[in-house]
Amino acid sequence: MTHHLEESTARAGGPLDDARVREIIRDFPVLGQEVEGHPITYLDTGATSQNPVQVLDAERDYYLHRNSAVHRGAHTLAVHATDAFEAARRAVAGFVGAGEDELVWTSNATEALNLLAYSFSNASTDRWRESAGRFALGPGDEIVTTELEHHANLIPWQELAARTGASLRHVPVTAEGELDYAAAADVVGPRTRVLAFTHVSNVTGAITDVARMVELARGVGALTVLDACQSVPHFPVDLPALGVDFAAFSGHKMLGPTGIGALYGRRELLAELPPFLTGGSMITRVTMEEAEYLAPPTRFEAGTQRVSQAVGLAAAVDYLSRIGMENVHAWEAELGQRLAEGIQRIDGVRLLGPAAGRERAGLVSVHVDGVHPHDVGQILDTQGIAVRVGHHCAQPLHRALGVTASTRASAYIYNTTDDVDRFLEALAGVRGFFGVDRTR
């Protein structure tokens, strides 16, 4: 298979533009296809990104030359597999500013957040209360999340509250779909033990002021949990510098394979946190009556691990690093503004979230008057334009914005300004196609 990485990112450190993006696209074979005679315009990275050949080759090379169980064998293949697995951990941890002992492999961000929530409830049992008391919750304690959240950063906390008797509260959003920080100052209080919030909304593209939220939590001694799924792939993120206690992100949103994600935790917290999944490879001593557990991160990685996926994610991190995350961020900010500005010029189409000119990620969601989002998506698909339709696993946010569902376009490093303009032109024709009264 031909490799293009050195060629397409030879100007690493320089800004992205349409010409350079077209070079990068050569690394993504899937984008060379057509739909009904139209070239694919892939604007659904917010759900799942595409994979460059470098990531595909890295995973294939692992299976061809190093496949074995990690941390279990003393033979040569097992040593090589373990080395690759831990090298991948170092690479991905370094990408977000963390130490290798602060990154736990999971299947995805959803599993990472559930792992954390279940570990908190384990801390509330007699078995762990003495050593992990700072994570124990009970009646009178409060867990705070926000109205912006993906269900993966809401439902685990709902269930944790139900298991422990703690109360669940939330920070509302403004009419523009951004966090209401004034309200947050009232919601976060002396009973708050956990503050869980997203870095970037997967619906509106609004970017959270993390420092402000961390300050609120620290002021009352609460732990912070950051959903970084829509930030780590798109702009430079240094999790320790942000000051959050825990964070989760997924590989499949940042050019990596499916089936791999990560939980970040400050090392001193992971050292006290009880495990959730138990079994092989995470223990030091086992009798018929009890077990003792390894230090983090291995303590949280029971069973056979996602070795090839970790190797693939490390290749994705290398790919993004060569391009430069500042360059990724600048390009997506340009595309995001182009999307927002174009949408605001289309009659009968409402932009959800920050208006054009406000800081936002490179994604937009819209409500088209008189046309169901599924119909919008089908019309766009006939023109080769792939977008996401539905509630994007964020029903409370859509409800707060007065809609049940929306159409979302999300850009990445393989999207050009032509892609954005093609989407805007197609979107502008949707209401006319369905004969919806433009004065409605």
Automatic annotation (TrEMBL):
Q: Which cofactor does it need?
A: pyridoxal 5'-phosphate
Enzyme class, broadest EC rank: transferase
Superkingdom of this entry's organism? Answer: Bacteria
Give TM regions.
Answer: none
Q: Does the keyword Transferase apply?
A: yes
Key words, A-Z:
Pyridoxal phosphate, Transferase
Q: What are the GO MF terms of this UniProt record?
A: cysteine desulfurase activity; pyridoxal phosphate binding
InterPro entries per record: Aminotrans_V_dom, Aminotrans_V_PyrdxlP_BS, Cys_dSase_SufS, PyrdxlP-dep_Trfase, PyrdxlP-dep_Trfase_major, PyrdxlP-dep_Trfase_small
Catalytic reactions on record? (sulfur carrier)-H + L-cysteine = (sulfur carrier)-SH + L-alanine
Q: Quote the EC number.
A: 2.8.1.7
**UniProt-listed PANTHER family:** CYSTEINE DESULFURASE, CYSTEINE DESULFURASE 1, CHLOROPLASTIC
Entry similarity comment = Belongs to the class-V pyridoxal-phosphate-dependent aminotransferase family. Csd subfamily.
Query: What is this protein called in UniProt?
Result: Cysteine desulfurase
Q: What lineage is this protein's organism placed in?
A: Bacteria, Bacillati, Actinomycetota, Actinomycetes, Micrococcales
